[in-house]
Amino acid sequence: MFDALLRRLTAPDTAPLPAPDARLALAALMVRVARADGAYDQAEAARIDRVLAALHRLSPFEAARLRGQAEMLEGEAPDTVRFTRAIKDHVAIEDRDAVMEALWDVALSDGARDAEEDTLIRLVANLLGITDRDSALARQRVEARRSGG
To answer: In the 8-state DSSP scheme, what is residue 57?
Structure first.
């Protein structure tokens, strides 16, 4: 399964990924953001599970399974562009704010902003057609939820 998906992600001209692969691509992006600062821990994995469960109405077991698949895929995928292309092809522009919130939620799960995570999220936002302003607003919404506001 992963070999076929990885071949599609790394092929020069690929057809759009089917919807389930778009979910996996988003999960892999979340893992990539969590790993961007060089420290990927259980708290970040648990946050990814919660975000996936909420976004896709998954059970905790299903979310953890999806995250496990995403961890393997993210470790083998050479670039971020293919992940964002899969999301862009299957998520309407007006729904991409939720993608940005999910990424910020993961990035902020360790309680600190990190330059590597910020840089990756900025790249992802650009690839998804999200402005820096809209990405910042998504981050602020996540921060407000975390602080109870």
So the answer is: T
Could you report the per-residue pLDDT of 4-14, keeping only the tens digit for each? 544 554 455 44
Which pair of tokens denotes residue 44? 């970040």
- Domain limits of the chain? 18-146
CA distance to 44, 57, 131, per residue, from 35 (Å): 9, 24, 23
For residues 89 and 56, the answer to whether their CB atoms sit within 8 Å is no
User: Which residues contact residue 129 at a Cβ distance below 8 angstroms, ignoring those fewer than 6 apart?
Assistant: 88, 93, 96
pLDDT one-digit tens code per residue, 99-112: 999 999 999 988 88
Q: Quickly count: other Cβ atoms within 10 Å of residue 9's Cβ.
A: 23
Q: Are 23 and 66 in contact (CB under 8 A)?
A: yes
On whether the pTM is more than 0.85, the answer is no
- Domain 18-146 is found in CATH 1.10.3680: yes
